[in-house]
Design a protein that fits this description.
It is a single chain. The protein is an all-alpha fold and 146 residues long. It is 64% helix and 0% strand. It is built from nine helices and no strands. The chain has helices at residues 6-16, 28-41, 46-54, 65-70, 75-84, 92-100, 105-116, 119-123, 127-143. Helix 2 crosses helix 7, helix 3 crosses helix 5 and helix 3 (46-54) crosses helix 7. It starts with 5 loop residues before the first helix and ends with a helix.
């Protein structure tokens, strides 16, 4: 099976998140595009860029685990997406360990955290949400050694 091209992965991700918005009310695909660009800027390869486009798809119920398992993606891309998918009730330490032990995943998560913690994105949120998220992202960066 030939893996999907990056353009095809982007189209799948955009369609899967159609109508979804981030905490600031922006189209969710903007976040996915920013993470993919961040992975590319950090020297990530095509498998990591594909994972960046899909990194929230299973966690946000935009796509299913069954879809991911059957998708025309490389095993490494699937492993990165799976590593970045938080499990219900999972401790941040366990989540960080899984990311750190999955080849290629730390770079994608670094790009995700960089965009999530962007001061311009956080500035439009109310103070309690901004404070909570800033602390959450800082803790994850520390757990990942970033």
């Amino acid at each position: 099976m030939t893996p999907l091209t990056l353009a095809e992965v982007e189209a799948v991700a955009r369609a899967a998140h159609e109508g979804q918005t981030d905490k600031a009310g922006r189209p969710y695909a903007e976040h996915l595009a920013a993470v993919a660009a961040g992975v590319r800027a950090r020297g990530g390869d095509a498998e990591q860029i594909a994972a960046a486009w899909l990194h929230d798809s299973v966690e946000d119920d935009a796509l299913t685990r069954d879809w991911l398992a059957a998708a025309a993606l490389t095993p490494r891309t699937k492993a990165i997406v799976d590593a970045l998918t938080k499990r219900p009730g999972e401790a941040p330490e366990a989540y960080a360990r899984r990311i750190l032990t999955t080849p290629g995943a730390p770079l994608v998560k670094e790009a995700d955290l960089a965009h999530n913690a962007d001061p311009d994105r956080l500035a439009v949120l109310d103070e309690p949400t901004r404070k909570r998220l800033t602390e959450k992202y800082a803790r994850m960066r520390a757990l990942l050694g970033l």
